[in-house]
Amino acid sequence: MLNAIHQLCSNYPHPDTHYYKTPLAIHNLVNNMAKKHLNKELYVTCLSDPFNMVPAASDYSVFVPAVSYIDTEGLDPNADDETLIQQFLDKIKEIPFYKKTKKSSFPKFLQALLIRMCIEYAKDTENAARGLEFTLLHELGHVFHHHSKNHAKLNQKYENGSSKYLNNISLGLLKKIEEIKQSKKHETEADEFAMKTNSRGAIHLFTFLTEFSKQQRKLKKGRILQSLACRVLFSPKGNNRSFYLSHPSEILR
Ligand SMILES: [Zn+2]
Known about the structure:
Layout: H1 2-10, H2 22-38, E1 43-46, E2 56-57, E3 61-64, H3 81-93, H4 108-122, H5 125-144, H6 147-160, H7 168-197, H8 199-218, H9 224-234
Parallel strand pairs: 1-3
Antiparallel strand pairs: 2-3
Helix pairs in contact: 1-2, 1-5, 2-5, 3-4, 5-7, 5-8, 6-7, 7-8, 8-9
């Protein structure tokens, strides 16, 4: 993955290919894209939890997961979940920035699945760089459309809403329905924003996800949960566009 990042960063000014300075390279990359496409500066936060693989954006920040810029060399995708996760943690230790890591909230099988996905993805450096650019542009799309503000508005609406006529359960359900609807709209808008500048990245990314998911679903032996997760996350009937889980069926993505 590191090579893909270097490839991507080298297309922008301030290329910085030193391993330990990669978070800085990402920072420069995101800010160059933000200046170009949004005409503003953003903070870039490198997520300290190595397993939090969800890039996200607020009005002034983009969060980039650690897994995006580790060197995938030396990780064995065929190792069992525990071993692979340990290999990943050892890699993260090499980066001074990640000395303090919290425990992941993701179940182990999902952590391992995502690490395998990154290893597979990083094989094609040039296309991986395009896909990564698409993912980052998608996050900038959320910033461009002020999606975090819309989300706050929706929260406020339900906080101010009177519960005179509805009990809390019905209100919670209504809120959830509206959140899912808003979230889908936001993801589509963010994708469209990214697609305008990088349609090739989008095509590569979504093709990769579909193929990866198909492969994983075939590996039933001992990987039933992974296979199920692929069905939910990447199937055409599921979210299908969940690179790094950037589109889980959660709010705020
Ligand atoms: Zn998104």
